[in-house]
Amino acid sequence: MGMFSKATEKAKVVVESTTASKKNTTWTAGDPEGDQVGKAVHKLVELSTQVKALEGQMAMHETVVKDFALRNFVGHIAEVGVLPETPNYVQNSLGEKVTFVTQDRSTAYKVKPEQKEALVSLLGDEAVSELTYTEVAFKVNRDVMAKPGVAEAVEKALEAVDKKLRAAGKLTDEDVLVDADVKEAFKPGTLGRVGIICGKDTTKIRAFLDAMNSSFTKFIKC
């Protein structure tokens, strides 16, 4: 069996193991009224329910505050032309405050077709092409390739195989032996250039930030 067949079979085993019915082992503690472990389990389940209820309430209030903060964030960019100085806070008349956290994750995610379509309709093809770049990544087994001499041997072997296959007519000029993962992402610092890209138009700035989606992370932190 060749290395590609072995890799395929190994992948199938992983998939099958994740789809198989889950088994478990359960250890039973005593009565919560008189057993320390049983009581602890009871309290954990009880507190977990309370935490989930509180998290639901927090999520509701966080949505309100985040929307307020984002409106001010966009307004600042439109007025000043640059991002507001961090950290950003939302504070009430009692002096209580929470943090509005923003993160530029431009290079971390692929630009999805719907994102690109939204940006093109907002800014035009040429402007959007200036905001993105293409990153190519080759994936191998890192642990194996880290062993002494392995990387060099693999590269030489692949080059030799490639030449033989082409000489034998098995590969054409269009065929590529080593495949790669190609990712189109926003260029680093794209978020910081929003004021330059969109000018003072708050509607345009908000639409641009929405189109960035997960590349622009924003959340409330207490």
Task: Sum up the structure in keywords.
222 residues, alpha+beta, 3-stranded antiparallel sheet, two-stranded antiparallel sheet, 8 helices, 52% helix, disordered N terminus
Describe this structure in words.
By secondary structure, the protein is an alpha+beta fold. It has two domains: 148 residues, no CATH class; 41 residues. It is 52% helix and 14% strand. The protein has eight helices and five strands, in the order ααββααβααβααβ. It has a three-stranded antiparallel sheet, with helices on one face.
Q: Helix amount, in percent?
A: 40-55%
Low-pLDDT ranges: 2-6
User: Structural class per helix/strand content?
Assistant: alpha+beta
Mean pLDDT score: 88
How many strand units?
A: 5
Assembly form of the protein: single chain
Helix count?
Answer: 8
Summary, kept brief:
By secondary structure, the chain is an alpha+beta fold. It has helices spanning 3-19, 36-80, 113-123, 125-129, 142-145, 150-167, 194-198, 202-212, and strands spanning 88-91, 97-104, 132-137, 181-186, 216-221.
Write the layout of secondary structure elements.
Layout: H1 3-19, H2 36-80, E1 88-91, E2 97-104, H3 113-123, H4 125-129, E3 132-137, H5 142-145, H6 150-167, E4 181-186, H7 194-198, H8 202-212, E5 216-221
Antiparallel strand pairs: 1-2, 2-5, 3-4
Helix pairs in contact: 3-8
